[in-house]
User: Which sequence fits this backbone?
């Protein structure tokens, strides 16, 4: 199997699905000639032509809306948000048109809205946001947040093949940072299946996206101190694999939830509530959360480091949890 | 004709200028659709007053020529994205009274299973894609629909609607610009019925005609009298032809009047009496009826017979639908996602 970066794995999924299914096409800003702001779709237009790699005006509502219309007419569009921050400009189309169509009309809207999210790269409040929880709250949208290259490929394939609207959060900090073996050719991972990425018995960290890497670093450090920590990557917020999380909570009796998005009304609160409702009697300690401070993601490195979670913050919280 | 017609402007009602594109049987058919929309509307108003219709009842009265004349210009593979005052278009696209009445009354087995109402009716099998309450949202969607067919080399046309209020939304701009850049076969009817809820045109926009915006988008634009159904039809036929030839979208502003409130709860006391009187004389159905009678295409007896039959059919649809139960509670938990 080839070693691919997270970015290459996503591009591989798009390319493979576009070769397999001519209904799949891409639309977004600067994606054809320029190859996308992160060069994820570099040279795509040469293989697939400019109709299937469609450069669009800076109009996120039109991009998502046109994707919905094309999906209603038999296509499987993948719309790129140049930065996931700009999904706010297409929010209405996703939550009011795409998310309600199956419920109202009984037909699917097979679109994927994808793009780079997340901070830690010295961007600014408008190029760093983790807004996945907004869509988890929308009812009718699937929400995918991969942490690894192989998962990114498999989940992208599944998202394109899904008959429902999917928002796909790529973490820009992971794009070229991590590399791993990624299966060649068609590779799909079902949406709604969490992955136990590290087994343990003294406590569990439930995470997704960049926070999975913070959790793994913390678990590795804790293993040197004699603690065995389980790490669960939920991979998709909607559908949420409640059973895998509950099974781990029942096994380790201590749960910390980590995500890069801000704390209040973040998806961690939902996970905590599910554990509290269904596994309360198994818990030996309060459920804890590590998340961004409730602030816009700031620009200066000192401020950004202070506001965002990282491996040290997860480690410190986990130490407290294990000794509670 | 200017977009902001007031009682001060022309007092004489211009006669219907016959379109060379229509045959007499087509004229009768269009007249029948307009009457059907009107009588359906009156029936919904009555049901609302009787407390038998719930939710918003949004009158179509005054809009029949715009709705029917535009939809009538489409072919049998084209798609319609109507708004809440376009029931006439549903009839043109073959919708039957029972189906529509079931949906309006949100009964078991209705379109959309009772999950939505208030004029948002879609019927995919009939190529009718309903709107949502967020004005302008369906413009990019209607554009995307024909982007897909254009990619496959098909030449179907998408027609959608917006009002004098909804054309101030960002999605109007994004949708029309996108369709113009891609030269999509989209016809957007801007129904200027003079009021956005209680707000007159002066609150909504500062340009003289909404179709003037076409210049800024690089597409075609035209403002017409929206109470003359033959003019609406002919204008839309030309727009549809341009669309099929790959010449891109058209903005057709039809000047009409919303003859009642935003919905039936609204007494529209903010509308000057003179303005209603001005437009009452231009009632699209009265105008067309006078034309058809004067040209001896229909007799007064014919009109009475058509109207009587429509009223009976609508009454039968109400009797059919109103006896049916509301959807069972479990419908509320279905279809959040499809398989």
Assistant:
């Amino acid at each position: 199997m080839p070693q691919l970066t997270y970015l290459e794995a996503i591009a591989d999924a798009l390319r493979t699905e576009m070769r397999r299914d001519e209904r799949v096409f891409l639309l977004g800003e600067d994606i054809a000639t320029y190859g996308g702001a992160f060069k994820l779709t570099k040279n795509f237009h040469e293989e697939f032509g400019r109709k299937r790699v469609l450069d669009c005006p800076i109009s996120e509502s039109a991009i998502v809306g046109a994707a919905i219309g094309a999906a209603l007419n038999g296509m499987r569009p993948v719309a790129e948000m140049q930065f996931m921050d700009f999904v706010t400009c297409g929010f209405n189309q996703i939550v009011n048109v795409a998310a309600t169509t199956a419920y109202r009309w009984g037909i699917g809207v097979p679109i994927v809205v994808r793009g780079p999210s997340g901070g830690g790269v010295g961007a600014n409040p408008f190029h760093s946001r983790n807004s996945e929880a907004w869509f988890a709250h929308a009812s009718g949208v699937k929400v995918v947040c991969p942490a690894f290259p192989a998962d990114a490929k498999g989940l992208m394939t599944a998202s394109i093949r899904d008959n429902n609207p999917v928002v796909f959060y790529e973490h820009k900090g992971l794009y070229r940072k991590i590399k791993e073996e990624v299966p060649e050719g068609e590779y799909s991972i079902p949406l709604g299946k969490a992955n136990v990425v590290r087994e343990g018995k003294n406590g569990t960290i439930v995470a997704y996206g960049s926070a999975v890497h913070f959790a793994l670093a913390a678990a590795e450090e804790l293993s040197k101190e004699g603690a065995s920590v389980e790490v669960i990557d939920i991979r998709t917020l909607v559908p949420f694999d409640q059973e895998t999380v509950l099974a781990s909570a029942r096994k380790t009796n201590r749960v910390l939830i980590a995500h890069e998005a801000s704390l209040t009304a973040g998806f961690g609160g939902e996970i905590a509530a599910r554990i509290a409702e269904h596994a309360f009697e198994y818990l030996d300690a309060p459920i804890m959360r590590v998340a961004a401070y409730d602030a816009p993601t700031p620009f200066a490195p000192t401020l950004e480091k202070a506001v965002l979670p990282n491996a040290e913050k997860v480690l410190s919280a986990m130490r407290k949890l294990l000794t509670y | 004709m200017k977009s902001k017609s007031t009682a001060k402007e022309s007092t004489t009602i211009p006669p219907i200028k016959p379109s060379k594109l229509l045959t007499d049987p087509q004229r009768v058919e269009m007249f029948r659709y307009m009457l059907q929309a009107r009588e359906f509307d009156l029936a919904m108003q009555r049901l609302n007053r009787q407390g038998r219709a719930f939710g918003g009842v949004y009158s179509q009265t005054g809009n029949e020529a715009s709705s029917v004349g535009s939809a009538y210009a489409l072919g049998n593979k084209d798609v319609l994205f109507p708004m809440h005052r376009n029931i006439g278009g549903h009839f043109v696209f073959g919708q039957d009274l029972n189906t529509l009445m079931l949906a309006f009354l949100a009964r078991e087995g209705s379109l959309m299973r009772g999950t939505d109402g208030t004029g948002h009716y879609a019927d995919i099998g009939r190529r009718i894609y309903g709107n949502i309450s967020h004005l302008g949202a369906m413009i990019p969607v209607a554009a995307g629909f024909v982007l897909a067919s254009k990619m496959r080399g098909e030449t179907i046309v998408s027609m959608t609607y917006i009002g004098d209020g909804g054309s101030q939304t960002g999605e109007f701009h994004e949708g029309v610009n996108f369709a113009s850049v891609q030269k999509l076969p989209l016809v957007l009817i801007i129904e200027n019925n003079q009021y956005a809820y209680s707000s007159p045109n002066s609150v909504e926009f500062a340009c003289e005609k909404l179709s003037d915006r076409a210049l800024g988008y690089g597409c075609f634009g035209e403002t017409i009298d929206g109470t003359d159904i033959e003019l609406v039809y002919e204008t839309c036929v030309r727009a549809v032809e341009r669309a099929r030839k790959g010449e891109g979208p058209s903005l057709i502003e039809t000047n009409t009047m919303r003859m009642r409130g935003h919905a039936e709860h609204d007494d529209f006391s903010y509308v000057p009496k003179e303005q209603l009187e001005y437009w009452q004389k231009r009632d699209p159905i009265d105008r067309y009826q006078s034309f058809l009678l004067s040209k001896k295409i229909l007799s007064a007896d014919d009109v009475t017979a058509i109207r009587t039959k429509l009223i009976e059919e609508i009454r039968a649809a109400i009797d059919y639908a109103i006896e049916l139960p509301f959807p069972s509670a479990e419908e509320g938990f279905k279809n959040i996602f499809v398989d």
Notes: Chain B touches chain A at residues 112-113, 115-116, 120, 122, 124, 129-130, 132, 134, 137-149, 151-152, 158, 170-171, 174-175, 177-178, 181, 335-339 (CB under 8 Å).
